[in-house]
Amino acid sequence: MKIFFIILAAGKSRRFKSKLPKQFNIYKGKMVLEHSINKAINSKIFEKIILVINKSHLKYIRKFKNKKIHIVYGGNERSISSLNALYLNLVLMSIFLSKWTILPSLNFGS
């Protein structure tokens, strides 16, 4: 069975009161988002990581060069971002032609 990890990171973090969205702030020397991505990669459980981001945040994630990470743009609402990730999941799974499982994602949105 192929398992994909979906990270919803398209939020603008309006309540966080920072110039940077919270998922891109530095915590213990790395972006908050980077901690989650590294945990998912190092776990060796997940076939792919689907990272949902805001188009305007692309400049922050250019450093993530890993063939397991697939980027998809979020929508105006969290529900649209989730659907975009699920759609990509279906497309990728149709390529693998196997069963798929959706695990809970981490909330890095606003």
Structure description:
There is one protein chain. With 110 residues, this protein is α/β, with parallel strands linked by helices. It has a single domain (2-102), classed as Spore Coat Polysaccharide Biosynthesis Protein SpsA, Chain A (Alpha-Beta Complex). 32% of the residues lie in helices and 24% in strands. The protein contains three helices and six strands, in the order E-E-E-H-E-H-E-H-E. The radius of gyration is 14 Å and the shape is globular.
How would the blueprint of this fold be written?
Elements: E1 2-9, E2 26-27, E3 30-31, H1 32-43, E4 48-53, H2 58-61, E5 69-73, H3 78-96, E6 100-102
Parallel strand pairs: 1-4, 1-6, 4-5
Antiparallel strand pairs: 2-3
Characteristics of this structure?
about 110 residues, alpha/beta, Spore Coat Polysaccharide Biosynthesis Protein SpsA, Chain A, two-stranded antiparallel sheet, 6 strands, about 30% helix, about 25% strand
Compact description:
This protein is an alpha/beta fold and 110 residues long.
Question: Number of helical segments?
Answer: 3
Low-confidence parts, pLDDT < 50 over ≥5 residues? 97-110
Roughly how much helix do the residues carry, as a percent range?
25-40%
Number of strands: 6
Q: What letter string, H or E per element, gives the SSE order?
A: EEEHEHEHE
Look at the structure and give the mean pLDDT.
76
What global shape is seen? Answer: globular
The CATH level-2 architecture is identified as Alpha-Beta Complex
Radius of gyration, whole Å: 14 Å
Read across the widest sheet, the strand sequence of neighbours is 5-4-1-6
CATH homologous superfamily classification: Spore Coat Polysaccharide Biosynthesis Protein SpsA, Chain A
The SS-based structural class is alpha/beta
- In the CATH scheme, the class would be Alpha Beta
